[in-house]
From TrEMBL:
Coiled coil: none
Residue span(s) of domain SnoaL-like: 6-126
Signal peptide location: none
Entry protein name: Nuclear transport factor 2 family protein
InterPro entries, alphabetized: NTF2-like_dom_sf, SnoaL-like
Length: 134
């Protein structure tokens, strides 16, 4: 169940949309603007989560270097806003077209942590779990 001010929950939804748009454009700078300085990003393909905004952005560049283009559809759920902090889940479906050819479909869920600074929401942590892949 979602709780907290509607304005904040809408702003977090827009943050999720900005993240997906940056990923779809393979635009590390735009994608990176969704992260707080204390960013933590974890994927199943990583030995351990990457920490620090600049390290997270560099990891994104490395992960997507092999991608020709992709589609990412995401939606947040279970958003709980408590002042300038929030947490929730974000379910997503990715259709990835590698430069080498073929396609990969990934369905998963991010466990998200958010912070609001100067009136804007950012991700502090996104840990991804793959629910299905084909």
């Amino acid at each position: 169940m979602n709780t907290g001010p509607v304005e904040d929950r809408l702003a977090i939804r827009e943050l999720v949309e900005e993240f997906a748009a940056g990923a779809m454009r393979i635009d590390a700078d735009a994608w990176g603007e969704t992260w707080a300085e204390e960013a933590v990003w974890g994927l199943p393909s990583m030995d351990k989560p990457v920490e620090g905004k600049q390290n997270v952005i560099e990891a994104f560049r490395e992960k997507l270097a092999y991608v020709e283009f992709m589609s990412m559809i995401s939606f947040p759920a279970e958003l709980v806003v408590e002042g300038d902090r929030a947490h929730g889940k974000c379910y997503c479906r990715e259709l990835i077209f590698p430069k080498a050819g073929g396609q990969v479909v990934v369905v998963g869920c991010f466990d998200d942590q958010y912070v609001k600074r100067d009136g804007r929401w950012y991700f502090t942590s996104r840990i991804y779990e793959v629910m299905g892949k084909g």
